[in-house]
Amino acid sequence: MKIEKIFLQNFLSHESSEINFKGSINAIVGQNGAGKTSIIDGIVFSLFSESSRGNIKNLVKKGKSTGIVQTEIRDGNNLYLIKRDIANSSNDFIAKNNIGIARGRKEVDRKIQEILKLDKDILLSTVIIRQGEIENIFKELPDVLKKILKIENLEKLTSSTGPLYSVQKEIESELKYLENRKIEYENKKLEKEKLEKEIEESKKKLEDLKIKKLEKEKEIKDNSAKLDELKGKRDKYLELTGRLSFLTERKKSIEKDVENYDKIKSEKEKLEKEIEENSYLEGGESLLSELHELRKSEKNLKDQLNTLEKEIEEYEQNLTKKISLEDDAKRYEELKERKEKIEEAYNEYNSLKSLLNDKLKRKEKIENEIKSLGNIPSLDNVNEEVENIEKEIDNLQNIKGAMKGRKEQLIQVIKNLENIRENKCPVCGRELTEEHKIKIKIEAETEVKDIEKKLSDVEKKVEELRARKSELSNLRLEIISKLTKLRKLNEDLTRISQEVQDIQTKLKELEKSYKEYSEIREKLILLEPKYKEYLKVSNYNEKTLEEKKNRLSSIKAELDDLQKRIKGLLEKIGDEREFEGKLKLYKENKNKLDKLREYFIKIESEKNELEKISKEIIELEEEIRQLNFNEEEFENLNKKLEDLNNERINIEKEISTIEGKINASSDLLVNLNSELNKIMEDLNKIPKLQKAVDRVEKLRKILGGSGLQNYIISIFKSRIENNLNDILNMFNLSFSRVTINFEIGGKTQKSKVIIKAYNTAGNDLDIESLSGGERISIALALRIAIAKSLMDEIGFMIMDEPTIHLDEERKKELLNVIKYSMNIIPQIIIVTHDEEIKEISDYIISVIKKGDKSIIKQGEYID
Ligand SMILES: Nc1ncnc2c1ncn2[C@@H]1O[C@H](COP(=O)(O)OP(=O)(O)OP(=O)(O)O)[C@@H](O)[C@H]1O
């Protein structure tokens, strides 16, 4: 089993670090505080969810809410992925070959133990070695073995605080409890007898009360019949006395009215006479209302008359004004009409004028542009010059060709001269002297030089001509463009001049109308105020004035007629105030008389009723006397019945109380019986429990003794011892054998381990007397040996700063041992500062700290 990879997120100083363990010996290096041990902490946390820094929450990077550790472990073909979430344990999970097999902290812990086949205590005591703790194994071995072999649990099982002892204590306390139950049984039995007696007494009392209740019920029945009879009489009595008191009251009221009879009669006759005398006032009311109506109409007509008179006066004034303004208004309208007629010509004149301005500006601009073109050189002249240059270039090119030909001839001559073996002219065959040859060569070379100079002059000339030709080509293009522009401008100028002329002709035609329009406009401005005045009065006319006057005369006639009618009415009424006063009194008297008549009729009918009522009163008084009803007798009987009912209710209450008591006591009795049965059942357990106490006691003695522990340890010890010697052989030490012996401690004495090494001479040496290096080798071998005894194959070993505090000698030994361990353990992970460990490692993981963040560099070394 190998750890392949670990990923730390917000874990201690790591923000996001992925570490691959690719080598056999993987060295984790870096400065103090860089975050090396944190990687080991990450592995331990991911395997056992355990923090080596106190509280688990301390593992979260400061400032973050949680941290994640993800580890990949390979076991043959199986790849396990373990994910741990520090703050949220329910997010923990483990997957096997990408398929989830457990979730949640507890389940994941259990699964890992199953996969590793060892629990955390054993791994932490063997293959995971914390800073400077290699040799601790010698001290811890007894405890480690106890842990491994679960002897610890055996001790715990039998100790005075262990489960067996508690079982024994529990049974003993149960027995004690059962002793108390015996006493309880006796007490409950007495209680039961007392309860049974009480129930008997209550039942007897209940019988007596039931008889008493029957007697009361009979008495109530008899008295109820008597009371019913009295109630009938009482109802009749109340009815008769009620009627009697009503009639007595009525009689009193009638008698009072009858006393007034004569007084009312004379009053009525007096009023009748007075009304008769003033009968002429009948209909006076309608006369008055007619008079009021006529007066209202009179006022209305007078108002109309006033308004109309004012209206006519104003109308006459406005009509006069209209006539005086009529001529000016007519003139205004005529001018306005003329103005509208020539308005179009006026507007056209104005727009043509502005158009003319624009055209003139445009014309001036074109003329300026033509001027700016200046004198354009003749295109023909330029063409001719170009033609001449081309001819000259051709000519010079020919000369150049001829000179080049001559130059090559001369060079060939010079070459030939050099190659002549015999002093004979290769051309003519004549003899050639050396001087002659030199002379020919000098002449030829001079001519070559001369030709070269001429060639260069010709080329210069050709260049100059070409430059001039290109200048002329540009000039030509410029001339063509200017000529094109000039032609266009001239065309524009001709067109625009024609347009200007046309506009001017048109303007002349329109000038007369334009002037007339301007004059009319002036005149209209002068006439406008008068015209506005005229418009205000233009609707006034003679016909309407006549109509208004006719209306005035008809209102006057109407008013006259009305005033005559008012006069006639006043003649009938006389003084208006006095008439109104009389009329008011007349009406009041009439109302009074109506009421008196009504009252008089009522008294007359009451006189007849009085007789009847008196008779009925005498009859009623007789009937009441004969009824012979006594209210006191009724009250007493009523009270007696009420008392009897209360007594009956009390008896019933007493009955139900006793019945409830009997029921409760019966329930109590049932409970008591069942409790007594239960206690009896408990008491039957006593003999069995006594036997159990004896047996547990015996078991504790057997398991607690050192014999059994010694036996278990001795079997396992031989396996470790054999493994240890095999490993030590590989470490190349000079011992023939190392032995391990235990002294199992007791309650007061601690267990002890005695390790002895035998040298080749056969002498045994105590572990304390060995060299430091030898001790470290044996310690490491011992750790591996224990792990090997428990696992078929040890996958990895983790060491945090194993060389810390070691001197050079021991360090060297340790390095050897680590190297040799490779044969037994396929993967070693070491946190170290030590250069020599780096040297024996085949994979370096460097950790550096930037700010508060750890950064990983793999496969290379960074100091
Ligand atoms: N919860 C945390 N958040 C952030 N940083 C932390 C936290 N807890 C501890 N540290 C810092 O993490 C750093 C790394 O600690 P670690 O023990 O891994 O260092 P190291 O490289 O093993 O150092 P040394 O060689 O001194 O043992 C330390 O500087 C420590 O102060």
UniProtKB/TrEMBL annotation:
Cofactor binding comment, as recorded: Binds 1 zinc ion per homodimer.
Question: From the UniProt record, which GO molecular function terms apply?
Answer: ATP binding; ATP hydrolysis activity; zinc ion binding
Q: Which Gene3D superfamilies is this protein grouped with? A: Helix hairpin bin, P-loop containing nucleotide triphosphate hydrolases
Alphabetical keyword list: ATP-binding, Coiled coil, DNA damage, DNA repair, Hydrolase, Metal-binding, Nucleotide-binding, Zinc
Task: Check the record and name the Pfam families matching this protein.
Answer: AAA_23, Rad50_zn_hook
Q: Which residues form a coiled coil?
A: 168-406, 441-661
Which residues participate in ATP binding?
Answer: 32-38, 131
Taxonomic superkingdom: Archaea
Q: Which SUPFAM superfamilies match?
A: P-loop containing nucleoside triphosphate hydrolases, Rad50 coiled-coil Zn hook
| InterPro entries assigned to the protein according to its UniProt record, in alphabetical order | P-loop_NTPase (IPR027417), Rad50/SbcC_AAA (IPR038729), Rad50_ATPase_archaeal (IPR022982), Rad50_ATPase_DNA_repair (IPR054990), Zn_hook_RAD50 (IPR013134)
**Residue intervals passing through the bilayer:** none
Q: Which cofactor does it need?
A: Zn(2+)
* Domain Zinc-hook positions: 379-477
What the entry lists under NCBIfam families is as follows:
Rad50_Sulf (NF041034)
| Family note | Belongs to the SMC family. RAD50 subfamily.
The domain comment in this protein's record states: The two conserved Cys that bind zinc constitute the zinc-hook, which separates the large intramolecular coiled coil regions. The 2 Cys residues coordinate one molecule of zinc with the help of the 2 Cys residues of the zinc-hook of another Rad50 molecule, thereby forming a V-shaped homodimer.
Oligomeric and partner information: Homodimer. Forms a heterotetramer composed of two Mre11 subunits and two Rad50 subunits.
Q: Briefly state the protein's biological role.
A: Part of the Rad50/Mre11 complex, which is involved in the early steps of DNA double-strand break (DSB) repair. The complex may facilitate opening of the processed DNA ends to aid in the recruitment of HerA and NurA. Rad50 controls the balance between DNA end bridging and DNA resection via ATP-dependent structural rearrangements of the Rad50/Mre11 complex.
**Any idea what this protein is called?**
DNA double-strand break repair Rad50 ATPase
- Protein's organism: Acidianus infernus
Organism lineage reads as: Archaea, Thermoproteota, Thermoprotei, Sulfolobales, Sulfolobaceae
